[in-house]
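agent> Task received from the user: take the single chain below, predict its 3D structure, and emit structure tokens. No templates, no multimer pairing.
agent> Plan: (1) validate residues, (2) run structure prediction, (3) serialize to tokens, (4) report one or two observations.
agent> Step 1 OK, no nonstandard residues flagged.
tool_call: predict_structure(input=
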Amino acid sequence: MTFEVNSKNSYFDDSEVNKNITNLDIKKGKSLLELVDDYVVIDIETTGLDPSNDEIIELAAVKVKDNKIIDTYSTLCKPEQKIDGFIEELTGISNEMVKNAPKIKDVIEKYISFIGDAVIVGHNVSFDKNFIYYNYKRSTYKLWLSNDRIDTMRLARKSFPNLKHHRLRDIVEYFEINNENAHRAINDCFATNECYLKIKNYIKDNDISLKKNNSRTNNSFTRIDLRNIIAINDNFDTTHLLYKKYCVFTGKLDKMTRESAVQIVANFGGFNENNVTNKTNFLILGNNDYNSSIKDGKSSKHKKAEQHILQGNDLQIISENVFYDIINDE
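)
tool_result: status=success, residues=330
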């Protein structure tokens, strides 16, 4: 199989890419498009977006059995690095709040034990699971967290394809769910659980099939951004997180070329942009170490994306590893 990039008339072999993606997802479980009654909802808050470098500052989980909450877990965590102004404004968690909190290494095993072998439910859950996985590995040197996962964002896109956005706050608003103190982990767990329950009922009441829905789109979706990158075919999984989403890359990717990455976005029915705009849905962060002109580890695209998020735009900043998890979600 090859990746075709028409703008450069060149081809990219994806065999090494697929091998790297598979290795990244070892023991991380499968992504499910299912309705279950026993599960654990998870949510975390972090100092940044890269699981291999940034830290967890809040852990929360809600245990559900027969669709009823039976237990909860929540704790702040003291990071080694300072919480910057953007994260404090987004989450409401300050350096003062975490100064006497336990370190992640002292609570991560208790958190993992609370989750047990349950199916994990979360909104954009790959982000949370990646952070938990890497922190558990760093703290205990164990490769763990093989739980299967259900992403309520993916279910929402399947159930409500006509909604403009499918962020947690959009689904909360759609169902008129109260979520005060959003972006605090335990509150987002409760909100995600309410959304999941309502989505399940909606799917059952409307007899919505959860099988992958490959729909053929018109030619306007095969031309991606200014570089005219053409998808290999136009049979897209319309529930995939990248479908019809606008993506921007910044920094050098470690495990594939930029050309291969944008081709993958196109193959999932997504759009590539050169710069962050009001339309951007995902900013994927590569490694900016090569660029000595970048201060504080944030490119101009990164800083612009943060401004858009604080303004309420439907934009997520994700690391390269989270991007690989998303494109490998089956």
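agent> Step 4: summary for the user.
Confidence is low (pLDDT under 50) at residues 1-26, 214-227.
agent> Done.
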